């Protein structure tokens, strides 16, 4: 069965991995709602580009993932425009790098809200229409940091471990409704999220930003390259396909061998 004409909500899709996934889904004929922050003209350009290039419907919703009521409004838009969400990609995320005893409370709260709690709220709001249709795909963009820790990332590692747990419960709760829930766990992908953390990593480790890339970021990638956005977009498409119909509650690493050792 093709996913053409299905509908997707991709959180945090104005940049990086989320934009790559939204583009890959649109290319497969999926109508999309994109979400995230950024300059409004640039977002509108991306939205129009998806519609024109791939002949799909694309809407933008500016829901802030720290605000459950705005998340509900975004899913209501999917209900209104597309009769619900068929494919939900929980991708929005932020990072903060600081030693645990100096880690700011506000950063902790924001990371837990955006990287973890928002996925609970999107899932809860999307599942009723998936259940009605007897089909749904929930894909949570976690991280290798959902499975292992790195120093200075208390909020991020806690949230991503939580997201892996949430994925497993969703898989079990929804298994008899034709709905699968899986987590993709990437290693480092060269996106603004990674570029922005270089100065703080350099400060915490006491090394230069170039050294951070070689000695910290690529240290655990046994394939000494960044993961590509397209690698994650392709895995997302696979999880939406019939070939993955029996895969649920999985954590799929795409990390150059990081979690193999
Ligand atoms: P990015 O910074 O390029 O994109 C993040 C997106 O989230 C942007 O669209 C941003 O506007 C949006 N966003 C941030 N705060 C938001 C909020 N409050 N409400 C709504 N949207 C918000 O980052 P990325 O690297 O593409 O990361 C995407 C996801 O992939 C994140 O969950 C991240 O943890 C995960 N991830 C990234 C890497 C990596 O190395 N880049 C590795 C593993 C996992």
Report on this structure.
The chain has 261 residues and is of the alpha/beta class. The protein has two domains: 7-187 and 227-255, 3-Layer(aba) Sandwich (Rossmann fold), CATH 3.40.50.720; 190-224, no CATH class. Helix content is 49%, strand content 13%. It contains eight helices and seven strands, in the order E-H-E-H-E-H-E-H-E-H-E-H-H-H-E. It has helices at 16-27, 40-54, 68-82, 105-133, 154-174, 192-205, 209-217, 229-240; strands spanning 7-10, 31-35, 58-61, 87-90, 136-141, 179-186, 251-254. It has a seven-stranded parallel sheet, with helices on both faces. Helix 3 packs parallel to helix 4 (105-133). The protein is globular. Nicotinamide-adenine-dinucleotide (NAD) is lined by residues 12-18, 35-38, 64-66, 91-94, 114-115, 141, 143, 186, 188-189, 191-194.
The total of beta strands comes to 7
Helix percentage: 40-55%
Order of strands, main sheet, comes to: 3-2-1-4-5-6-7
Largest β sheet strand count, sense and barrel closure = 7 strands, parallel
Distance between the termini: 37 Å
Average of per-residue pLDDT values: 97
- Taken as a percent bin, the fraction of beta residues is 5-15%
**Structural class by helix and strand composition:** alpha/beta
Write down the CATH topology of the largest domain: Rossmann fold
Going by CATH, what is the homologous superfamily of the largest domain? NAD(P)-binding Rossmann-like Domain
Helix and strand element order: EHEHEHEHEHEHHHE
CATH architecture of the largest domain: 3-Layer(aba) Sandwich
What ligands can be seen in this structure?
nicotinamide-adenine-dinucleotide
Shape: globular
Q: What is the CATH class designation of the largest domain?
A: Alpha Beta
List low-pLDDT spans: none
């Amino acid at each position: 069965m093709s996913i053409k004409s299905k509908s997707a909500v991709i959180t945090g899709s104005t940049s990086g991995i989320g934009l790559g996934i939204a583009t890959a889904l649109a290319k497969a004929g999926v109508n999309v709602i994109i979400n995230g922050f950024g300059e409004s003209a640039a977002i509108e350009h991306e939205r129009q580009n998806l519609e024109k290039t791939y002949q799909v419907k694309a809407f933008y919703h500016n829901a802030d993932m720290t605000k459950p009521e705005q998340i509900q409004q975004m899913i209501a838009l999917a209900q209104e425009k597309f009769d619900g969400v068929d494919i939900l990609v929980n991708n929005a995320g932020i990072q903060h790098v600081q030693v645990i005893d100096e880690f700011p409370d506000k950063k902790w709260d924001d990371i837990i809200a955006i990287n973890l709690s928002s996925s609970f709220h999107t899932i809860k709001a999307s599942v009723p229409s998936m259940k009605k249709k007897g089909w749904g795909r929930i894909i949570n963009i976690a991280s290798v940091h959902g499975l292992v820790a790195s120093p200075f990332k208390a909020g991020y590692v806690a949230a991503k471990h939580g997201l892996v747990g949430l994925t497993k419960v969703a898989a079990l709760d929804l298994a008899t409704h034709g709905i699968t829930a899986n987590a993709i766990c990437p290693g480092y992908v060269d996106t603004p999220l990674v570029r922005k953390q270089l100065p703080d990593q350099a400060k915490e480790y006491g090394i230069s930003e170039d050294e951070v890339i070689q000695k910290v970021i690529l240290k655990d990638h046994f394939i000494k390259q960044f993961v590509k956005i397209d690698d994650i977009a392709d895995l997302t498409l696979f999880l939406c396909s019939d070939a993955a119909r029996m895969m649920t509650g999985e954590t799929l690493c795409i990390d150059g061998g990081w979690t193999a050792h």
